Amino acid sequence: MSAKRKLEALLGLDPDDMDDGRYAELQADSERIGVTALQELAAASEHGAIPTACELQEMGRASGHPCGRRVDA
Fold first, then answer.
1. Which residues in the chain come in under a pLDDT of 50?
2. Distance set, CA 16 to CA 2, 29, 35, 53, 72 (Å)
3. CA distance 72 to 43
4. Rounded Cα–Cα distance for residues 72 and 52 (Å)
5. For residues 20 and 4, what is the distance between their CA atoms, to the nearest angstrom?
6. What is residue 40's predicted lDDT score, i.e. its pLDDT?
7. Which three-class secondary structure state does DSSP give residue 7?
8. pTM listed for this prediction
9. CA atoms of 2 and 59, how far apart (whole Å)
10. What pLDDT sits at residue 48?
11. What is the pLDDT of residues 9-18, one digit of tens each?
């Protein structure tokens, strides 16, 4: 199964529902947080909405956890 199809399935989307731009964003996030973490987020998502890597870092910082270097969106 292609990586894009797997993410679509984990997000609850039909094949070819995800546009290439969104897939590129998710690929970039997977390089920052790891493929497994991205897949876990996708599987736990509701309606295909998952936080970006930047949003995850900000949530961590807001909770008082160090989350690596600052990433500007």
1. 73
2. 11, 20, 20, 23, 30
3. 26
4. 11
5. 9
6. 94
7. helix
8. 0.77
9. 30
10. 80
11. 999 999 999 9
